[in-house]
Amino acid sequence: MKSLFFLPVFLIGLTVLSCKSANKEETTADAVTTLPTGTPKGVAYKVDAPRCVLKWTGYKPTSSHFGEVPIGDGTIYVDGDLIAGGSVEIKMSELTVLDIEGEDRTDLENHLKGTTSGQEDHFFNVQKFPTATFTILSSEKLENDPVGTHQINGALTAKGITNPVSFKAMVDLSSGVAMKVVAEPFVIDRSKWDVRYRSKSFYDDLNDKFIKDEIRFELTIGAIKT
Prior knowledge:
The structure is a single chain. The chain is mainly beta. It has a single domain, classed as Beta Barrel (Lipocalin), CATH 2.40.128. Helices cover 8% and strands 40% of the residues. The chain is built from two helices and twelve strands, in the order αββββββαββββββ. An eight-stranded antiparallel beta barrel has the order 1-4-5-7-8-9-10-12. A hairpin with a 4-residue loop joins β2 and β3. The N and C termini lie far apart (47 Å). The N terminus is likely disordered.
């Protein structure tokens, strides 16, 4: 099998390399240390998982892979025309690879999930961290922006590490009973969540065998007023 590259942030085979010790601190330097407690202000919308999807794309120097991660439970709070808070569960234990098939696909999914013996911490270690969570901290209304009606500011917690993540999104509340949020594609840096496999943020001697730190996400969320 072609062990591929990291993507959903995520991917493959192992080589023992020397770590850049200084970069560990950089990985968590911007980490969020506290998240809001209590119930946000506003009207609650329950996440409707069948209407939600998180698509991912990961990159090697000359190729890429893509797939999806299912959305689980969540509640989003709307105050007027703003998203005031809430959280959405991301089911890392169910991530899929969609651009390859057969044994290659199975092997890559298992490697990304860390369900293969000896590869647990290469990427996401879903046995220890089966879910990730996106917590909404605030939003801002955008005027005359072609790619979004709102800027959504939040924090992504994965592998026990929380870092800020913001993106523009089209937010549709027009029905009065349901919500649809379609994010403009956005990019995160996997090294900030200590996803190290073949990352040039941690290893010096990868040459052209590295996997890029950037992961591209496309997020759609549907929710129903409770």
